[in-house]
């Protein structure tokens, strides 16, 4: 009881005591109900002469058989219910103890083999119920010992810890904000060249995040401490403190958005010009924000429910003035002579910074409004109390299927231990109790659970048993007790330190503490003739081994498969979230785009339906802030479990690769959070302004034109003077390094806004489609089908997916005959420059072999299924050394050799070796082939490619032509060679599969370019009303989309590596 009621703080111990006592109470009430209905008869007695204690006893088969189903049902129901684990294990443990006491027919007062006298009031049902109630009350009193350990000698209050953290929180924010503002606003340097700045910023952000996690964990403990009056003694209000912790978390999120902005910045001349004019305003808001945050923290530490300070209103006015000034400055810069369309894209990172800093400041002065709407009435507090009591019992789970498996396995283990306790251990409840204490629902590999439990079992039994053996030899009782208690204290302290120091070793430390206590608290060696009794040790060991065996036999889980399933779940959730948020932002800005008349645009008719409602926005925020972070934290643990899991026949697990995947998943979550926060920021900006945002329009540049020209010339001079230098830094390549500047040809100067809008619609559709398809492909790559595939299998799948996507021009998911030409050209790049290739015949044959339903459309699934069934794409090389490879230049004028006009033979004989372009039946490195250098001397025939069906070769002779033509084939020295790629590094050829890059980055760059062109042409149209808020939102959207594209490309690279 004392071990399992322990916690680092007073509030934690109070919560543990409540849950433990609740579990014992549930079991007690259940047994009262069961045994008031079922009488104990001691019928069908059987003798058990052989047992661990070597003392014969009786078992009532009637009572045991009648009670066992009730024990089984209670155990399964408790393990299946979504309640806290403490409640579960103490309910199951107490229920097993109570039922074994009821059905035990032996008289405990007599050392012999006498039965209970059922006529005696002490052994009747009512008497046993009273005894068990007294036993439960004694157990409740025993849990108070844990409370004394955290109260004496110095109370470990969670409230004090939380107040200490809140006192240091403003300092953390100030350091991070000052560092970012100093670097971005006053130094104007590329962060890729500032390694020490990046390292320091990461260190400060990690420390702040750790403080946030600790404060969130301490909040629940503070609530339990408030119940016992600690909050009154320390002048603390938990509700106000909770609002401050939420404020701290939102500020950290804004600071991460600012970090994202400075990482995307490259010191463009537009940044230099605008920052010179805005430095003073930004510095003033920075100082006011820091002072306001410090005052808020002081008020919260005083438990004040009001924030009467004029700083909130003054800061709000300063922000409004800044936004108005920034809108005018940007409008003037748009009229500068040196400003071009590309400069709009270069200033998007600055807009991201303005948004994040505006959101940071707005979060601060919004705190007063949030606090004023908070309900602090007594009635509300009472309702909140009962809600928290229920939450302390209920613990929902998103892994219901795994919870059922856990309940079945653990119930089976308890049943086995229950039978062993009845027929071997003389109704001792040690075995079922050990299983109830050790079993815990854990989303992870079975091997990790077994390893931790085995480590705890060995650590808690071997050394304590050896020490206990020698301690029992001490004759002096006082010295024996002192030394035994000292060993018990030291071992439990060490075990609990391991338990609390590492989440991965928590189970091992808890089992070690439990087992060492059961060993060292057994004083039977002092009262029996035997030197030492191993009864308790054996029972615990057998029970834990039983649990591990059942878990290993009944649906064992591999940490690797769980990890891949976890990644699948995350990527699928990302796909849904991105689609909803991206569509919302696009449709929300359609009003600012020009009308295009008859030109089709996306979502113009379903704008209201595509926008997120207030309820959907709240659900989206909950998923991004609670659900997905929980899954990613579980992914981190699964990576650790998979690393420790033995490989055996499986390929070696790459911890580095999956750690990078986890890092990319966290980065993608941050970008999706940014897009989600933009939804609220846009609505909040329009709600707070009396007008419909600050209108952005071209203004007279005035003196700003000279500044722009000077900054532009200075930048060009620096570029001309500086040689190309490769910086070896600690920072990974950013999005800007991976995305081309202008993938599309620029629009002509006389292009209308309608043309720009059409290009924008096309680019955003293409980007959304390629992101969806990329996430879908990644979900497939992390499926069970690809678990044991090689890196080449991943690479060929991604290349085929990319080639299919390029061919699918209308994004319909299928390719027809016209689009199939593009796909085959990607697959067969050598046929383009060799004259007439008879592409129509290739297309017809391809459709005949692959299009199973004959609808004229080929899906990617049909194509991959054909490959899986053995479909091959081959390249045939005709080689006649005497005729086709001249020995000198004079022979080039000779008549060329006879060449075949139609598609080549499909016969695959042993002496023929064709160049396999794709053969997924082997799916090895052969799939990505390069031509050896010697192949450069071989002349390609006009018709070089053919397809091989997975079926037999009969029925394909018609493709070969007439008998005369077939007789001519050997005469020209035909030789089909299969070239492999073991020496790929020595090859000077090019890959046959003509897809060498992912189009994600290009699609993102196209998005930026097309919006820049649309914006400038919308500003030239007086009928269009473009607000600065919309421009900032679209800048954040496009910048985040570029980073999402870069990270998805990185995920694809990791999968194919």
For the CA atoms, what is the radius of gyration? 37 Å
Helix content: 55-70%
Measured by DSSP, the beta-strand proportion falls in under 5%
Major β-sheet annotation: 3 strands, antiparallel
Mean pLDDT figure: 76
Count of all domains: 5
Class of secondary structure makeup: mainly alpha
Principal-axis shape = globular
Précis, in short:
By secondary structure, the chain is mostly helical. Helices cover 63% and strands 2% of the residues.
Q: Overview of this structure, please?
A:
It holds the Pfam family EF-hand_7. It comes from Phytophthora nicotianae P1569. It is a multi-pass membrane protein. With 1057 residues, the protein is mostly helical. It has five domains: 1-156 and 415-427, no CATH class; 160-391, Methane Monooxygenase Hydroxylase, Chain G, domain 1 (Up-down Bundle); 446-556, no CATH class; 561-770 and 1026-1056, no CATH class; 777-888 and 898-986, EF-hand (Recoverin, domain 1), CATH 1.10.238.10. Helix content is 63%, strand content 2%. It is built from 35 helices and seven strands. The strands form three sheets. It has a three-stranded antiparallel sheet, covered by helices on one side. A hairpin with an 8-residue loop joins strand 1 and strand 2 (57-60). Helix 27 runs antiparallel to helix 28. The chain is globular, with a radius of gyration of 37 Å. The two termini are 51 Å apart. Residues 590-607, 725-737, 830-836 and 874-996 have low confidence and may be disordered.
